Amino acid sequence: MDQNSELKFKEGMKDFYNKKAKVNSKGDYESFRWFSTKNKRRQYIFTTKSLNYHLRDIKFGKCLDIGCGPGTWTRLLLKKYPEADFTCLDISKEMIAQFKNKNPDKKIKFLINSFIDQDFKSKYDFIFSSRSIEYIPNKLKAILKIYDLLESQGKGIIVTSPPHSFIISIKKFFGKKPNLQHTQRISVREMRYLLKEAGFKKIRFYPILFTDFALIPTS
User: Percent of the chain having pLDDT more than 90?
Assistant: First the structure.
């Protein structure tokens, strides 16, 4: 993707979360995204259980949350690490506003910017990103920046969704375009390669969502 296309995509994502997502969710994107249907609630339960499991042995004092959105997963981190310092970045001023409305915690430093464009003044011993890496076209640049921002013994968690090529092919067959926000997803194989290229060690991949069948409990 060339520079002009990257800029257009970035502005498209900013516009989507500032306007369309606000309208669709009636001003409460967190509730709309995770609790408006049984299927979404199952996704929330699976993600919560997985994050709690993988965070069980992690300790940190300074956390950077890339693409924090309305704060769904930041609040999970805040609950587990109430003494840590948090910097939360999102490209959408609307998502940051919804975050602040639900969690007016003065300890949190908020940044409204794209991750690539933001100039950070310090390093972090823990970096968290949920579904934001797929909104950054230049994945290698983003991962290299994450690596540079981590302390030497720092750890991180990146949650993302791989491309759903079968679903996209069906949409194309029926003449439908995939949603813009779903066009820059990254495969597990490519993610592993880029993490190694950046210099990361002890890389591990784990599934979060195993099924969306109705047999899975919603509470």
Answer: 72
3-state secondary structure of 99: helix
How far is it, in rounded angstroms, from Cα 28 to Cα 31? 6
Q: How would you label 156-195 residue by residue, b for 16+ Cβ within 10 Å and e otherwise? A: bbbbbeebeeeebeeeeeeeeeeeebebbbbeeeebeebb
The count of other CB atoms within 10 Å of the CB of residue 72 is: 19
* DSSP letter (8 states) at residue 28: -
Burial class of residue 25 (count of CB atoms within 10 Å of its CB; 0-12, 13-18, 19+): middle
Return the residue matching tokens 């195993």.
210
Question: How far apart (Å, rounded) are the C-alpha atoms in residues 34 and 162?
Answer: 19
DSSP 89: E
What sign does the dihedral 30-187-48-81 (CA atoms) show?
negative
pLDDT of residue 103: 81
Question: How far is Cα 2 from Cα 9, in angstroms, rounded to an integer?
Answer: 11
- Under 8 Å CB-to-CB from 133, ≥6 apart: which residues? 66, 67, 139, 142, 143, 158, 160, 186
- Give CA–CA dist 81/155, Å, rounded: 15
**CA triple 195-137-196, angle to 5 deg:** 10
pLDDT digits (tens, 9 = 90+) for 86-126: 999 999 999 999 999 988 767 899 999 999 999 999 999 99
- Cα 141 to chain centroid distance, Å, stands at 16
Token pair of 144, please? 């290299």
